[in-house]
Structures are given as C-alpha cells and as structure tokens.
Automatic annotation (TrEMBL), chains A, B:
Belongs to the FPP/GGPP synthase family. Supplies octaprenyl diphosphate, the precursor for the side chain of the isoprenoid quinones ubiquinone and menaquinone. It catalyses: 5 isopentenyl diphosphate + (2E,6E)-farnesyl diphosphate = all-trans-octaprenyl diphosphate + 5 diphosphate. InterPro entries: Isoprenoid_synthase_dom_sf, Polyprenyl_synt, Polyprenyl_synt_CS. Keywords: Magnesium, Metal-binding, Transferase. PANTHER family: ALL TRANS-POLYPRENYL-DIPHOSPHATE SYNTHASE PDSS1, GERANYLGERANYL PYROPHOSPHATE SYNTHASE. It comes from the Bacteria. It is an enzyme of class 2 (transferase). One of its GO terms (molecular function) is all-trans-octaprenyl-diphosphate synthase activity. GO terms for biological process: isoprenoid biosynthetic process. Its EC number is 2.5.1.90. This is Octaprenyl diphosphate synthase.
Length: 333, 333
C-alpha cells in the first residue's frame, strides 16, 4: 500500500477498490429510477441519489459479495436495492422531520414537497422490491423484507420516544437498529448470501453490519453533544433543541437527582428552553460521566464489528471493512 | 339459490361463500399488524383495517384461488398481503389529500397524524412484503412488486395531472390503473398463480381484475358528477371543487370551444370558482355527451371483465365474480 492510499479514508479506499461495481450500480440507479409515465419521479430523486451520496450501503453489499469471490451480477442488483430503500426512507424522513421544523405551519411549497416525498419514496421502495425479486433468492428477499419492517418499526418507535424521559437504553438501541443498523446488516448479510458464502460467514457479516451501524449512530449522537460543527455538518446541540432522547441524555437522566430531573422535564418534556440550558445540560452529562460512557459504548460496538470480521478468510476487503469500523469512531475525541 | 340469497349484493354473497377464508385473513391481519416494540402501530391501523372494510381485494384473491380448487394456505397469506398494501396506500393518500383539505395549514394534530400515517404505512408495506415472501413463489413476488410500482407511479402521475387541462384519456387510464386496477388485477392473477392454474387462466383473471378495477373507478368518477350523495358517501361536485381531471371533465374539455375552454381554465386551472359554476360545468358535459360517453366506457369495461371470465371453467365463484362486475356499474343511472 502506498503512502497516498494509507492517507485516504477507509470509505474512499473501499470506493476505489469497488469502483467498477459502483459504476454499474450508478448506471442501474439511473435506469431504474426513471419512470415512463411520471417524469417528476427522477426530478425528485436525482438530487438525493446523484448528488454526493457516499454510497456506503451499496459498498457494504458489494464488498460482502466480492470478499467471497462472487463473479455474477446479482450483487449489483442488491446494492442498488439497498440504496433505493435508503433513499426511500430519507424521503419519508423529510416528511416527518420538516413538518416539525416549521412549527406546525408548513408552506404550500413544503406541502407539495411532502406529497412528492411520500409518493416518490413509495415508488423507490417498489422499485427496490422489483430489483431484489430479480435476484431470485428467497433468502435475500427474507432478509430485506425483515429489514424493511425493522426500519419502519424503529421510526414509529422514535416518534413515540420523542420528548419522553422514560425512554430506556433498550428502546434507544431498537431505534438505532431501525434507523441505521438494520439496513447495514441486511446489506452485508445479503451480499454474503448472494455470493454463496456459508452460514457462519453470513452470520459474521450480519454481526459486522449490525455493530458497524450501531457504532456509527452512537458516534453521531455523541458528536451532536460534543463535536465541532465542521466534522458532522450539524450544529452542536441540535438534538437538545429538538428534544431528542439519544444515549448521552438517556444516561444523564438515569443518573439525575430530583433537581436535575426537574431540569430535564422542563427542557425536554415541556420544551421550555432558556439561555444557558444547553451548557447546563452538558455540565450535567459531564458530572455523571454520560459522555464518556457513550463514547465507550461506541468504541465497544466498533470493536465487535472488527471481531466479527476475524472469523472471515483473509482478504484486502476484509481489512478495508475493519478500517471502516475504526473510522466510525475515530471522529470521537 | 334462495330468494334471500338472490336479493343480496354480489359482494355480500362472495363474503358468505368465502367466510371461513375471510376469518383466517382477519386473524392474520390482527396477528401481523401487531408490533412488539411500537404499540402505536396497531392503534393507527385498527380503525382502517378492522372497521367496516369491505375486503373486496382479499376476496378477489381468495375467489381466484378457490375457483381452481386450491386447498393450501398460501391464498390467505396473499389475501392479507393485498389488504395490507391497500391499507398502506390509504394511509399515504391521507397525507397527500388531507394537507390540501386544510388549505396548506394543517394543525399540529394533523401533522402528528401525518407522521404516523407515513411511517405506519411503511410498516404495513414491509409486513405485506414479508407475507408474500412466505408464499415462496417468485412469480407472485414479481406480480405484486410490479403492482406496487404501478400504484406509486399512478399516484405521482395524478399529482402531475391535477389542475392540468392538457390531461389526456390515456393519462387518466394510467392513473386509474395505479389507483385501483393494478391491485385488483394483481389480487386475481396472484390467486390464480398460487392455485396452480394454467397460463391462460392466469391471464384471464388478470384481465378480469384489471377491467373490474377500471369499471369501478370510472363509475365512481361519474357518480361524483351525477350521483346522489347517499349512494357514494361523497358530495356531488367534490372532484370539481378539488379541480380533479376525471374522465367526464377530460371529455368535456376535449370538445370545448374557445369560450368553454376559458371557463374550464378559470375554474380548474386557476381555481376561481363562483356560484353556479358547478351547474354550468354539468351543462357543458351534457351538451357534449360527456356523461353518457363516460357511462358507456364504464359499461364496456364491466363487459370486458365478464368476457374474461367466460374463458374459465364453470363454477359458482366464477358467477359471483361476474355478478360483481355487473354491480360495479349497476349504480349508474
């Protein structure tokens, strides 16, 4: 490996390794998101699918299949499926999130976008479904239909958990699986299945994808409290302002005394937030070690992801997937 | 057949014939719409799935399978699949339609419902997908994934066609297939496939379902212009007020002179509607025979549905399906 390569991020090195497959995925995305009858569909999806997507999920499927020397074409169908499901959930998340941002009074323009987001999301989900049927693997269909149910269930659970101080770490984990890990693990497991890998290898790649997704999401939620805006593209404290119960806050609430509990009830449950509250919230987290404990959990999930790979045969892609798990948490201070 | 039976509507006679199967479908619906982690899901779906649904789509699947003497259990999985897909599209339609009804300013309560509608619809769609994978029939998966894509495409097309006087009868037909006929034809065709019926019989049942769905939808759209509110549960003129381009209006616009065209442009494109406009619109339709021509098309599609059945072996269910096609248009004056 040259110096240049080692300086690159693992996901860029994966993209370079898989560049031919990724080009086929991109071509298939363009072909399948078209609609003979409804030209609005590619207009709505183009900015999501074409512009700057990191393609992390398709890369997971492609890498899992190539790791076992797969030489067919079904991994490209599957990788495209996974990206379409991801894009469909992004479109539907927009509907759920945007409405909150405008404080219950969306503009007509926003509503038009909502309609398009719902229906075009449905279209992409149906197209994903058609693509995976083309693989003719009932096992793959099983994995991806289960993932789709876990994703939707996790989103509903997140709605219920919002602003609810009784949210447990168990519920948080279920939400994280729905939000991120279910599609990561389906992407890696389905890639292994399509390549004909044995049951142990399939299981190892499922475990890798699941742990990787959880590590990424916990790291994201931690950076919302202590990151710098440049690293995440989000503003520090967004989750606090949106009253989201993520792991750092769940841990701080669990350790709170009566006075602290009243603070969380006012700021999160009632939504009465004042100057200095964000800083006080962070001070309470430091007091109870909530940020350090969250960081430790993220590192532990990343380690579990790497450990799962140890069961697989030696391969450059295996090492790149391991490096990706390290990258998930290397952003943490 | 007793006098009592002959006095019943065809769909009630179908329900009586299929009552045991329908009970199994209802039990499966209750079982599969539950969620271990997100109790809100059955709360949202219960009123849609349990209360007064006519179960027309599941009956189509069950009847198609039983027509060929199917004695397995997969037709119940399929019938439940079809009802879940239907319920998911209703939930997503709510989001699309309700926002308009409140003139761009939904209440917080409405927004909460929107979130739940989008996500619970996604959940039901995923559950439908799991159910059909359990049939282990790639052909059935193919039929239903194609139907899902046609449904979503039709909905987007309907958004584009709204308020657009250039909408053609061809576009209208595509919208109707997405809205109604695609799931009807998938329900009947998949029922035939699962029963092991031959290719000609599968094709005949596809044609029956497609024509039945189109006949039903054209009849609904006609009744919006000339029905009595009691028969449809809708107010006459709703589509005019909502500026929807259905078949009667498309035919009237196609035959319009310059003055009439200006009327349609003002009322439909610009949405400037005044007292007496609804009556004037109907008078224009009468002048050009648009209502009579629409009625003739509905009758023709119902006749096509019945003709398709003629290719199938004699069976009480075949006669009931034929009567259902008559019922679709018997509401028309």
């Amino acid at each position: 490996m040259s110096l240049d390569q080692s300086a690159q991020k693992p996901q860029d090195r994966l993209a370079a390794y898989l560049s031919e497959d990724l080009e086929r995925v991109d071509a298939l995305i363009r072909e399948r998101m078209a609609s003979k009858h409804a030209p609005r569909i590619p207009e709505v999806t183009a900015h999501l699918v074409e512009a700057g997507g990191k393609r992390i999920r398709p890369m997971l499927t492609l890498a899992a299949a190539r790791l076992f020397g797969y030489a067919g074409a079904h991994h490209v169908l599957l990788a495209t499926t996974v990206e379409f499901i991801h894009t469909a959930t992004l479109l539907h998340d927009d509907v759920v999130d945007e409405s909150g941002q405008r404080r219950g009074r969306p503009t007509a323009n926003l509503l038009w976008d909502n309609k398009s987001s719902v229906l075009v999301g449905d279209y992409l989900f149906a197209r994903a479904f058609q693509l995976m049927v083309e693989t003719e693997s009932l096992r793959v269909l099983d994995i991806l239909s289960d993932a789709a149910a876990t994703i939707a269930e996790g989103e509903v659970l997140q709605l219920q958990a919002a602003r609810n101080l009784a949210t447990t770490e168990e519920t948080y984990l279920q939400v994280v699986r729905g939000k991120t890990a279910a599609l990561f693990s389906a992407a890696t497991e389905a890639g292994a299945v399509i390549s004909g890998a044995d049951a142990d290898a399939q299981r190892a790649l499922y475990t890798y994808g699941d742990a990787l997704g959880i590590a990424f999401q916990i790291a994201d939620d931690l950076l919302d409290w202590q990151g710098d805006a440049g690293a995440t593209g989000k503003n520090v404290g967004d989750d606090f302002r949106e009253r989201k119960l993520t792991l750092p806050i769940i841990k701080a609430v669990a350790a709170a005394d009566a006075e602290e509990r009243a603070f969380w009830a006012r700021t999160i449950e009632k939504g009465d937030q004042r100057d200095g509250d964000l800083e006080h919230a962070r001070a309470l987290m430091e007091r109870h070690g909530a940020l350090a404990a969250t960081r430790a959990e993220a590192l532990d999930w990343a380690a579990q992801a790497r450990a799962a790979l140890a069961e697989l045969p030696a391969h450059e892609l295996r090492d790149l997937l391991g490096a990706l798990a390290e990258q998930a948490v290397s952003r943490l201070a």
